[in-house]
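pasting for ref
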Amino acid sequence: MAKKVKVALVYDFDDTLSTAYMQDYALIPAFGMKPETFWKNANKWATDNEADQITGTMYYVQKTAKEKGIQLTKEYFRKLGENIEYYAGVQDWFQRINKYGKWLGLTIEHFIISAGYNEILEGTEIRKYFKDVFACSYAFDKDGLPLWPARVVNYSIKAQCLSKINKGLKQTEDRAVNEFTPDDQRPIPYKRMIYFGDGYTDIPPMKITKDRGGHAIAVYKPKSKNKSNAIKLLKDERVNFALPADYREGKEIDHVVKTILLKIATEQNLELLKSKEEKKKKTKR
């Protein structure tokens, strides 16, 4: 059996684990708006003001809440996390995969890299399964209300977050991410990563993971038109797999991920056997 090594399973959140954007379930309805209307207006504000789309929509959430008289405290955000709906199998996915990894001699660590809000993610029932969460967050004033976007995670920052996981860094360790670290000293090499995403904002981390020997999975809502987007990512060689977002035991994602984990464990065992043979060569006769 292989010596235990770390494997990172890294997930986008919206439309990857959850069935919609996290703001769609309760926050936007509290504004008295439909999600499609809100996002159209928020994106237009960002475009009109030449703002980064994610930063712009964070401001627009803050602006709309103030206009509607809704106080976006950390506790309010946390409560929003309780309304998240997940794809089939997500709630027990982490325990099942951890158990399978342990059986193989692997230590599975789960991470989120999301353009959603950390304050909402903190209130989700699955937050306890993640070693770290890389997501947007607000700075709060003395009254406990959002003052300004403190951290923003867009498509390019997602690649930086992946590098932090590779080097064993936390979200706030920004300077260290650019410091040189030899590959053999990085806690989780890319070849022991599996990245799950659903769309074009996930392309940079998907591509990096795939090109550096790891595996990238594009998921799509079962029986939806979004399947074509995932297939295009597969055709464009951005990902290794395009699979329906069904995390139940015996389904495609379950089978693919377990096969990848078995491959990692087998390769680790092989490396140990080779190492033993190399030691024999150095042994004096």
